[in-house]
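We store sequence with structure; for instance:
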Amino acid sequence: MIPNLSVNFAGIKLKNPVLTASGTFGYGYELADLIPLEKLGGIVTKTITLEPRAGNLQPRIAEVASGMLNTIGLQNIGVKAFVEEPLEKLNKIGVPVVVSVAGAAVSEYVETVKILGRQNGISAIELNLSCPNLKKKIICHDLLLMQDVIRGVKKVSKVPVIAKLSPLVTDISELALTAQNAGADGVTLANTYPAMAIDIRTFKPKLSTVKGGMSGACVKPMSVRCVYDAYQSVKIPIIGCGGIMTGEDAVEFILAGATVVSVGSSSLVSPGNLIKVIDEIESILRGKNIKSIREVIGSVNTV
């Protein structure tokens, strides 16, 4: 028996539940010569902003035990350049494309999505709500501002809107529920965790911005908990991410309530890990004699 790995996420049909994670796979097409991208469930692009951004100063990546820190600063070519070349190349791959969008104000999110809305081949928008606003406050930590962003984007978006949330809150389920009530069609849980590292040879921080976002295997248990908590409260589907290195990790997120998962740091170690995760999910289901991945979603409390 070959298990059915297909899922429906907010009306988007995916051949399997494995996506790339924003920020770890470039614009999504660059590794086409290294792995068969058409085997993925979908591709989430690096975050796009209204205007080009140079990003933060180097150094902006540092390895830590079982993970990494980053402070890229949303470096990207801007939405107009994105639709001129990367999007065209993405559309040739033949899998759903989710474009990650960020801004420092509601108007920037809305205008960026308006421009994207004039293009074909975009399956969904993922709102990066873990970036700072004009007052340097994380957007999703301001519930009213987050609601305004989601509502503003929903008015102009022709495709489902997914809210990517920060785990740095007391109650992630409240945050996810607020996103749902504002009109989000799905949530991504969770973004990176604030952290820092110091070089004891130089006595200086390892990142130019001192602090950055931590990802990798070390954050998985915390992110699984985020998915589990949110799944108890929301009706919209969840993308689970954070430390997925193997198919076992992916199934753990799905058992907790994720409909799909996005794989990030693992693909930096080896791009082929994305395909390996898909194969391992299938193997796990086959070993359990489970016919469809949909039977597993959120089932941790029913077994």
Remarks:
- The radius of gyration is 18 Å.
- Residues 245 and 269 are 9 Å apart (CA to CA).
